[in-house]
Design brief:
Layout (H helix, E strand, L loop, with lengths): L2 H32 L1 H10 L4 H23 L4 H25 L18 H22 L6 H23 L6
Helix pairs in contact: 1-3, 1-5, 1-6, 2-3, 3-4, 4-5
C-alpha cells in the first residue's frame, strides 16, 4: 500500500470514528436537554448537593454540545478528542462509583431511563468511547485527521439511522 493509500484510509477512519463520537455526544446532549428533570434526578441520585444538581446537569449538557461541535468542525482535533476521552472516562468512573456504592441509579445517559441503570455495561460503553477518542488523538498525532465534510455526512447518516430505528420501534420519532 502506498503512502497515499494509507492516508486515504486514515482519513476515512478518522472521519468515521469522529462521526460516531459526535453523534453519541449530540444524541446524549439533546436527549438530556429534552428530559432535563429526569437527568437532574440522575445527577441528584449520585449524591450531589441539591444546590449544585442543576448547574452540574447544565454543565454536562453544554460540555457535550461544545465537544460535539468542536469535533464536527475539526477545531483542534487532537485536544478536543483528548477532552472527549476525559469526558467518557469520567462517565465510566461515575458508573463504577454507582456499582461500588451499591446504588441503583437510572442511566439517563441519552435523556430517558428506559430501565437501564449505571453499572458495568455503561462503564464499558464509556471506556469504549474513550478508547475511540484516544484513537482520534493517535491519528491526529500521525498527522491524519478526518475531513469535516465526510464527518458531517457520517453524522447525518448515523443520526438518521438512529431516529429511523426509534421511529420503527416506537411508531413515532423520539430522541432515544
Amino acid at each position: 500500500m502506498t503512502g497515499i493509500g494509507r492516508v486515504s484510509v486514515g482519513v476515512v477512519l478518522g472521519s468515521a470514528v469522529t462521526s460516531v463520537l459526535v453523534t453519541v455526544l449530540l444524541i446524549a446532549s439533546v436527549g438530556k436537554l429534552l428530559s432535563f428533570a429526569e437527568f437532574s434526578q440522575t445527577v441528584r441520585e449520585l449524591g450531589l448537593s441539591r444546590r449544585i444538581v442543576q448547574p452540574t446537569a447544565v454543565t454536562v449538557i453544554l460540555v457535550e454540545l461544545a465537544l460535539a461541535s468542536a469535533l464536527l468542525i475539526s477545531l483542534d482535533t487532537r485536544r478536543t478528542a483528548l477532552l472527549v476521552a476525559l469526558l467518557f472516562l469520567t462517565f465510566m468512573s461515575v458508573s463504577v462509583f454507582a456499582v461500588w456504592k451499591g446504588r441503583q441509579i437510572g442511566c439517563n445517559c441519552f435523556g430517558s431511563r428506559h430501565g437501564i441503570e449505571l453499572g458495568w455495561i455503561t462503564a464499558a460503553r464509556g471506556g469504549l468511547l474513550a478508547a475511540m477518542a484516544i484513537g482520534v488523538v493517535a491519528l491526529s498525532n500521525l498527522g491524519i485527521e478526518g475531513l469535516p465534510s465526510l464527518t458531517v455526512a457520517f453524522v447525518v447518516a448515523l443520526s438518521a439511522l438512529h431516529w429511523l430505528r426509534q421511529w420503527s420501534h416506537a411508531g413515532a420519532p423520539s430522541i432515544e
